Structures are given as structure tokens and as C-alpha cells.
Amino acid sequence: MADSSLDPASFWTQANALLRKNVTYQKRNIKTNIRLVSFPFIICLLLVLLQGFINSQLDKPSNNCGCACVDTNGDGKCQKVCGLQYSDLDQAATCPIPNPPEWPPLLQVPAPEYRAVRTDFLPFTDLPNESCRSSGSCPTTFLFTGNNQSLGQILAGNMIKASFNLNASDVVDSLATNVVGSDTYPQTTNFLDPAFFSGVPIYNVQSRCSSNSTLSVSFQEFSINVQQEVSCVQGLPLWRNSSSEINNELYKGYRKGNSESKINEFTAAYDFLNSNGNSFNVSIWYNSTYKNDSGQASIALVRVPRLVNLVSNAYLQFLQGPGTQMIFEFVKEMPKPQTKLRLDLSSLLGTLFFTWVILQLFPVILTSLVYEKQQKLRIMMKMHGLGDGPYWMISYAYFLLISLVYMLSFVIFGSVIGLKFFTLNDYSLQFVFYFIYVNLQISLAFLAAAMFSNVKTSAVVGYICVFGTGLLGGFLFQFFIQDTSFPRGWIIAMELYPGFSLFRGLYEFSQASFMGNFLGTRGMRWGDLSDSVNGMREVLIIMVVEWFVVLFIAYYIDQVMSSGSGKSPLFFLRNFGKKPSTFRRPSLQRQGSKVFVQLDKPDVSQEREKVEQLLLEPSSSHAIIVDDIKKVYPGKDGNPAKFAVRGLSLALPRGECFGMLGPNGAGKTSFISMAVEESLKSVNLFNGGVADKQAGKYSGGMKRRLSVAISLIGDPKVVYMDEPSTGLDPASRNSLWNVVKRAKQDRAIILTTHSMEEAEVLCDRLGIFVDGSLQCMGNPKELKGRYGGSYVFTMTTSSDHEQDVEIMVRHLSPQANKIYHISGTQKFELPKHEIRIADVFQAVENAKSRFTVFAWGLADTTLEDVFIKVARGAQAFNVLS
Ligand SMILES: *[C@@H]1O[C@H](CO)[C@@H](O)[C@H](O)[C@H]1NC(C)=O
Ligand SMILES: *[C@@H]1O[C@H](CO)[C@@H](O)[C@H](O)[C@H]1NC(C)=O
Ligand SMILES: *[C@@H]1O[C@H](CO)[C@@H](O)[C@H](O)[C@H]1NC(C)=O
Ligand SMILES: *[C@@H]1O[C@H](CO)[C@@H](O)[C@H](O)[C@H]1NC(C)=O
Ligand SMILES: *[C@@H]1O[C@H](CO)[C@@H](O)[C@H](O)[C@H]1NC(C)=O
Ligand SMILES: *[C@@H]1O[C@H](CO)[C@@H](O)[C@H](O)[C@H]1NC(C)=O
């Protein structure tokens, strides 16, 4: 209906208006805004407080390097002394250790219940009988293979000693010259070897054990008194014909995947390959899973070095004889200073919290968009001249601005209070990530807004999404990310859900800052994106692509369904210049409407033809084209259905004011309400004072003028006014008319009124509307000429002379028609073509000489007369038919 070629208000005028509207909306929701903005601050403060609490807990003595009250100088008073010697394994991590203790090198020996025995799933009969498990006396088995069996057997014999030689005055050294092992799990450091602090015996591996083979040793290492049980375990070397046999045997004994009874663990296995007297070539199997790294990223030590030393020493002895020894004396850590335990909470909890903080904006944008839809603000703004393009651009820019300000204050605040999450990661990387994400989020909100028409529903769904995404991310998705065996493709597929890509990005930031804090280095840098385990690159790519795709889909859906423009789903395939008329109806209905065409008055059917013509050849000069619209109020409670509007066609060029006249209930308001029903509602809504409380303070008349002024603000092409001057004093009415007259120059105005004066002053054309159809249309003069082809003659005499007056009139005009008479006052209609005004004066002068004339008058027909005539005529016709 609206014409696209008209100059709209400039982009900046629209932007300015929309911005002010938004600002007003924000001001009105100031409390919500304060709550929204304070959310990230509260989260950050909460993190800082928790961090402080955790730090104070970590700084407690029980978490620090072990200390004790010791009487150092023998005066009976104790002094606090700290150091490794008072620590347990956990506290040792923070102690200063300038001279780390020396520990004998150990083999990793399987625990007695896991040691290899004869089973039905292995063909070898040289393994010990299963009965040894119950007594805990199973030997620990070594497997050997190689190209030369005799050489292999010599080397194996050299490795396992026949006896255990302990020098009580130098226990550590003598443990090193024997073969000792432990079934405890190694730690990440060797400051305190768990084998000597776990309370279980270490094993001395011998070729044969006597019955009472457990002895106790004690030694002092770094002022720590170590009491240690040493029990004998038989070392059993077994030859296998090939390395594949060994592989098979080790594999079948694996603890996982087998029931307990089938576990068969070996100490180690050696393949001597092509070794001979000139070259030594060996490969060693060992179990790298034997380490205590429950979830920690740091690498646990594995007891391998002694395995290498053992076979090297055996080869040396094969070459040089048993007198030569290659002794592996001790294992010792690097010295270290005192450290503090530190745990960066913002990196640990940040992912979940920050996901919530950022997602918060989604329901905010969503509800704001749905609010505009629910309150019909969007359609109203459109009515007032706001184009789709500017609406999108301005709203988008507005939300982007809000999001960026929100994110900026979030990052700045987080950095100021020192959260490592923000300070350690590269700021430009953070900016790019947040920028892309908020854009994606705004596009998503536009898309989601198309699905909602109720603010409350959208708010509920929005917040469920926020919290659901955070929780799913934190308690499900995160495990998939951490599980390195989980297929990467599936993770990327999950990241297609924008909430998860946000979560992943924040997770990567938090990991980087956590490790950076832990290792005392920095967080994520641009260069780290090329790192294959860093998921940030995929996330950025996914988000950029989704941003554009989602924005496009949202715009498309908006154009098709929600903007009220009624475009077909394939609108973009059509020529944009020829927008279909809103009032266009399916051609099927045309058949039925012909019934009315026959009854149309010539001027009305002429208008109908004009409309048909305009529909075939659209022209930009017409602001409104109405093609045969109807409205039927369905019958209720047994009453027949009422045709409020029957087949009305109308074309209004720009700059015309069209007046609708008609008795009450003629269908005027129904007409201007239709297929523009929405827009009218919003006009009424707006005029009715919903827009601004201040309007309530004006008087009724002021309000009307205000609403007319408001309706003209946006430079709309079409303005509807429903009885605009009703109830105004003459002065106000005049000024209102002046406004309307000025305003009509560039737009089409449809105006309903009961004031004939108003219609005559303002309207270029009038239509008289009775019983749902136009009875006639034309400019006021034409109508008067057409329907008022008569003068109205009024004369008041005493009632005795009424007859005389009538005779006089009949004489003047035989076709005169008495339209009114009451106690001496009579009104006649005199057809213009039958009389001359001079004759009337003459006749009256004559009459005055014959009887007393109290008053008389001759008037041209008024619009009022036309109206009454047309209305009566049409109603009479309807009653007859
Ligand atoms: C295997 O090793 C032994 C001991 O060194 C050696 O005497 C023998 O010749 C070797 N056999 C072969 C086939 O190389
Ligand atoms: C035991 O160790 C001490 C100190 O290293 C040494 O003096 C002594 O000779 C050793 N005894 C034996 C029997 O090796
Ligand atoms: C290994 O080889 C020897 C000699 O070739 C043979 O006697 C023995 O049965 C083989 N062992 C197995 C388990 O195949
Ligand atoms: C290696 O050690 C792990 C952990 O102690 C154990 O579960 C597994 O069975 C061992 N594998 C073999 C082949 O002994
Ligand atoms: C050691 O053994 C491997 C496997 O049999 C062989 O590929 C390699 O050439 C050998 N190295 C030497 C120095 O003989
Ligand atoms: C790993 O170390 C922790 C503490 O250091 C200990 O509680 C746990 O029992 C160890 N696990 C194994 C399998 O030794």
C-alpha cells in the first residue's frame, strides 16, 4: 500500500528517532539494566572473594612445608622448625630443598597378587603355579628373547643375583648394588620416594629366597630416619622364542579387560636382537601405565632407568667377567626453592561463570525484540515511515553497542581486580573472540525473536537456554573436551551449537591462563592458535560462519513472516520495485464481487475501473490503492451476518485528503480498520496515550492535536484520522485544520468525520458511505451540484397562511417539494432549473403585501443536505431490497 518511491525520512532522522525510542525504553527499564550490568561485577567479586578464601586455606600450615616444634639447643624450650624432614608427601611439594636426598634406584615390581602365573590362556608351562598367589610368594618374572639363545641366557643370569649383600653402615649404596624394587606407584617428583614412605616392604630380587627372607633396614637420609622392611622375591628369567610371543603374553595379562583371575603382570621383558660379543642391541618392554598421575597434567616418573642399568651391567660382566660393575648409585631430584601452592579459581570456575555472564545478553536482546513485536511497536514504526533496512541496521548497531560496552566493562573490571583469566591472555585475541560472539548472539536473538510473540515466554525460554547451556557445557561438554580419546569431529559438531562454541572458547582461555599461572608464564597468544590441541581456531571459524548464516536467515524469516509486509517466501526472486499491493486479493473472489459492480453508482464504478487499471500498471503517484475489500461480521446468536464493508475500491494519489462521510454504523471505521487493522490499532494505541505518560496531563483537545502531530512525525505516506476534531473548541479546531492542510501536501490522508464543515474545508474528495458501500464520491462542489440540484426555500408565517405560501411556491415551481413543516414554518425544495432567484424575490414581495411574513430564506443546498439525502435514499433502498 505504501509507495516505495516516496522519499522517506533521511536515514539519520530515522536512526535518531529509533535511538531515542531505545534510550527511553532503557531508561524505563533502569532497574533491570542495573541488575544486568551488576551481574558480571558480582560474579567477578565473588570469584575474587573465593580466590582470597582459597589462598588463605592454601597458606594454612597444614598445606605448607611441614613444620614442628623442636628443642634445638637443649634448653627445654622448643622452636618451630620447618623442612622436608617434617613433611609428608603432600607438604613436601612446597618445602625448600637445597640438597635433595638420594634414593636407591628401584625396579617396578608387580604386586604379589598380580604377578604372572600359569594360566589356561597362555601356552607356557614354565610359569609358576597359581597356588603361590594365596601365600604371596609368587616370583617376579622377566622375559627374554633374541637371535642367540645362549647369549640371552648368560645375560639373564648376570642380571639376577644369587644373594643379597647388605652393608649396614652404608645401606643406600648396598641397596644400589643389589637388585631392589617396589610395587608402589611413583610420583611426579623424587624428593621423597613413595617406596620408602608407604609402609609396604621393598623387594630384593634374588634367584632364590630362603624361608625367613624379610629383614628390616634403617638409614638416615637428609636427616630423615627411614625404617624399611626388605623382603625377598624370586626373580624368574624365562626365555621365549620370539618377540611376538612376548608381546602376546604381555598383552593377554593386561589388567584391564580381563577378570581379576586372569591378570598376569611381568616385571619387564628384554629382546637382545642381534647382539653378540661385538655389539649390544637391546629393546626393553616396561609398563608405562605404572604411575600416579590421577588426572594431573604433569608427567609422573616411571621406574625405567634401573632396567637399562641392569642389562648394561649384565653385558659388561659378560664381556669383562663378574669383577667389573657398572653401579647405578642413587636417584636424586634437582634442588628447589620454597614455593606456595596456588590455584587460580577464575580459570577453574571461570568457564562456567563467564559463559553465563556473556549468555545473559541473549535473553535481554530477545525480549527487547519480542517486546517490540508484542506491543506492535515495530508495525507502528513502520506505519510512521521507518524502513526495514534502517530498522535492522539501527537495532543491530544498537544491540552491538550495548553488548560491546557490557563486554568491555566486564573485561576491564576483571582485569582491574586481577583475574588471571583476563590478564594473562592476549587482549586482542579476547577482543576478537568476544566481538565475533556477541555478533553471533545478536543475530541469534533476531532469529529467535521470529518464533516468539510473547515477552514472558521468550524471557523464560531465553533464561533456560542460558543456564542450561552453562550447565551442560560445564558438566557434559567439558568432559568430552578433556577426554582426548573422544573423536574431535564430534566435538566440532557439538560446537556448532553457539553456546558450546562460546563455552569452548572460554574453556581454552581458562586452560591457557591456568597453565600460564601455574607455570608462571603467559596465557594464550595468537601463535597458539596453530597448536593442534587448541580448539580456539575452529571455534572462531565456526562462529564467524554462523554469524553470517544466522543473520541472513533471520532477515529472511523476518521479511517473510513477521514484519507484516506479507512477502511470499520467494520474495527475493521478484522484482523488488513492484511490491504487490497489500490489499490484493485472490482472483477467485473477483467473480463474486461483480454482483456489486452492477449496483455501483457511476462515480463509484469509475473509481473501481481506475483501481483495476492501477493494479495492472502500478504507478508511484498513488499512496493508497484499495481493491474491492470486504468485511463481514459473522452472525451471532441467531442474528444475520452483517456486511460492514462490501466490495470497496479506492485509489488515493499523494497529496489528497479523502473524507469519509456516513451515518453511524455505515462501516467507515471498519473500512479504515481493515488488512491495516494492525496499523490502525497501533495508531489508536499510540494516540490513546500509551506512548508516554506525560500526554495524560494534556486536556482532551491538546491530546488530539498532539496525536495528530505525532502521527505526522515520521513523515508517513498515509495518515488515517478518525474524527480528529470531535470535541474541540472552534479555535483549536481551526489550528488543527491548518496542521492537516499543511501536512496533506505530500501524503494521502483518509479522514472520517461527522462535521460537514470539516469535510468541506479539508477534503479534496468525499465519499458517502452507507451500509458498507460507497454511495457516491467526488469533490464537495460536484456532490452538491449532483445531489443538491435545488434551493431550499423557508418561510415562516402564521399558521392561517400556510396554504397561501404553498400555493405561491407551487406557482413558482410546480415540482417543488415540501420537505418540512411545523406550525407555520415550511421548507421546500425548489429544483434549480425551474426557477430564477429574481422570481422568488418578486413572489415574496407580493406575498408580503397579502399577509404577514415573519421570516423567509432561500438557501443553496449544503453538504449536509446532500448527506441526508444520500443516506436516506440508500437506506430506503436497502429497506426495500
Ligand atoms: C651365541 O653366543 C655365544 C656366546 O657368546 C657364542 O659362543 C655363539 O657362537 C653364538 N652363536 C651364534 C650362532 O652366533
Ligand atoms: C661397608 O661400608 C663402609 C662405608 O662405605 C665401608 O667402609 C666398608 O668397607 C663396607 N663393608 C663391606 C663389607 O663392604
Ligand atoms: C622354542 O623353540 C624350541 C627350539 O626350536 C622348541 O623346542 C620350543 O618348543 C619352542 N617353544 C615354543 C613355546 O614354541
Ligand atoms: C601395567 O600397569 C597398569 C597399572 O598398574 C596395569 O593395569 C596393567 O595391567 C599393566 N600392564 C601389563 C601388561 O602388565
Ligand atoms: C638392532 O636391532 C634392530 C632390530 O633387529 C636392527 O634393525 C638394527 O639394525 C640393530 N642395530 C645394530 C647396530 O645392529
Ligand atoms: C597416588 O597418590 C595419591 C596421593 O599421593 C595416593 O593417595 C594414591 O593412593 C596413589 N595411587 C596409587 C595407585 O598408588
Automatic annotation (TrEMBL):
A GO term, aspect molecular function: lipid transporter activity
GO annotations of cellular component type: membrane
Membrane topology: Multi-pass membrane protein
Locations listed in the record: Membrane
Pfam families, alphabetized: AAA_21, ABC2_membrane_3, ABCA12_C
InterPro entries: AAA+_ATPase, ABC2_TM, ABC_transporter-like_ATP-bd, ABC_transporter-like_CS, ABCA, ATPase_AAA_core, P-loop_NTPase
Chief location bin: membrane
Transmembrane region(s): 36-54, 348-371, 391-419, 431-453, 460-481, 501-519, 539-557
Family: Belongs to the ABC transporter superfamily. ABCA family. CPR flippase (TC 3.A.1.211) subfamily.
Name of this chain's protein: ABC transporter A family member 8
Species assigned in the record: Morella rubra
Lineage, uppermost ranks: Eukaryota, Viridiplantae, Streptophyta, Embryophyta, Tracheophyta
